[in-house]
Amino acid sequence: MHKLCSHLNHNKEKNKWRLELKFNLLLCQSPGLLDDLSQTCKMGSPNGRPMQKSDDEVPFGSEINFHQSESILVDEHGSHSGESETSQTLWGIIYRSIKVVVFSNRLNLLMPFGPLAILVQKLTAHHGWVFALSLLGIMPLAERLGYATEQLAFYTGDTVGGLLNATFGNATELIISLYALKSGMTRVVQLSLLGSILSNMLLVLGCAFLCGGIVFPKKEQVFNKATASVNSGLLLMAVMGILFPAVLHYTHTEVHVGKSELSLSRFSSCVMLGAYAAYLFFQLKSQRNLYISVNEEEGQNGHNTNDDESPDISKWESIIWLSVMTVWISILSEYLVGAIEGASTAWDIPIAFISVILLPIVGNAAEHASAIMFAMKDKLDISLGVAIGSSTQISMFVIPFCVVIGWIMGHPMDLNFQLFETAALFLTVIVVAFMLQEGTANYFKGLMLILCYLIVAASFYVHVDSPQ
Question: Which residues have CB under 8 Å from 37's CB, separation 6+?
Fold first, then answer.
């Protein structure tokens, strides 16, 4: 026992000697440090008196004071390294962001197919391969677009998050439509936008309901019925705007043959644009409380369903990635559209089927992926905002906007989508409106919507698009 005590005392004296040596060396490097430390100790003690420590506390206190004084020296003599540390921090943020967004999903292994499609187009111009490679290249980009929007939804809320997802998801369709409209391909614009509406309302929403119901089989998922009712009303208004020019054309009741139909389309388009602008004001400003999602209401009542969830990237990182993905998807979509006719000939598939079914599936891949992800996390209001909100945006904004832009560009486009296409749109809106009226979702409703889409797809496969 006596040997153990002497050994401990020897170690304590040895540690004191080492710390005193380090402290003396530090004082030699900074002569004014002793006054600063004494002043600091007086400020930290009650009534300005020096704090007393027992012998057992000296090594730890001395070590703490040594590190504090070392940090003071770094601040005094090492401030010149601030710029390099800032630069390293910036590159670290960029590296971490790329690692999280690009290298965190196995589906991103398909990304090289996008540049490969461009290379094949430049070297061989084989439209069938260009179409297939562009299709594969867009899929991971669309999924990452949905991921970035999901991250941004943490900062904006469910309502604005769904609106942003619908907007970025429809940016591809809008760019493709303007490009085709400039080339005089008005029928391709009509069919592709119609197909986007059908795909969002039946396939995307159906898959979201189905996957959400499989993940939560013991309960019915709920969403805000007020939001669904307003969107259903806007879709019915869009059907009205598209229906009357077609009826006017096929009943031959125009006052001025060939002109009344176009004039009515332009007037209806302006009205629809005004209605959509009023809807945005109503949703985001005037009646904002009406559009609080079920998850947000539970959070306000103290029942937080997402305690374990937090964003992986910052708000500005999400915005930057959304912009990058949208631009890259738009570039690949242009090659995809340019290869439609060649792919139709090579694969012996009608152009109408490619325009209405295949092309919108690719264009809506962003909405498809994000709607399923949100539904599987029981955030059905965002899924509804993505699927139905995207359909509403296309029907009430993108289509009328293309009519007005075509009017300005000298490429007239009307709202006469022909009887077969208009009937398909009308029945789709009616079916979806009945599915949404209860404010609940389950896997069976999703299955019915998917089966309805299969019927629509089969109908367009055997349909020959007759010239107007």
Answer: 65, 69
Alpha carbons 344 and 456: distance in angstroms, whole number: 19
Residue 159 and residue 23 in one domain: no
What single letter denotes the amino acid at residue 220?
Answer: E
* Number of domains present in the structure of the chain: 2
What distance, in Å, lies between the first and last C-alpha atoms of the chain?
A: 107
| pTM across the whole model | 0.70
* 444 plus 370 within the same structural domain: yes
pLDDT at 335 over 80: yes
| Cross-strand partners of 440 | 222
- 255 in any annotated domain: yes
pLDDT single digits (tens) 40-95: 444 444 444 444 444 444 443 444 344 444 444 344 444 445 555 565 688 888 88
> Do residues 163 and 33 both lie within one domain?
no
Residue 417 lies in a domain: yes
Q: What contacts 333, CB < 8 A, 6 or more positions away?
A: 134, 138, 172, 175, 176, 362, 363
Give dist(CA 37, CA 53) in Å, integer.
16
Bridge partners for 441 per DSSP: 221
Determine the structural domain holding residue 16 and report its residue range.
Answer: 1-45+61-67
Give the separation between CA 306 and CA 311, rounded to whole angstroms.
11
Residue 209: pLDDT over 70: yes
Residues 434 and 307 grouped into a single domain: yes
Full DSSP string of 73-134: HHHHH-GGGHHHHHHHHHHHHHHHHHHHHHSS-GGGGGTTHHHHHHHHHHHT--HHHHHHHH
The answer to whether 220 and 440 are in contact (CB under 8 A) is yes
Say if residues 276 and 396 touch (Cβ distance below 8 Å): yes
Same domain, 162 and 260: yes
Q: Is residue 88 part of a domain?
A: no
**Nearby residues of 100 by Cβ (< 8 Å), 6 or more positions away:** 312, 313
174 and 41 co-located in one domain:
no
Residue 77 within any structural domain of the chain: no
Contact (CB, 8 A) for 409 and 181: yes
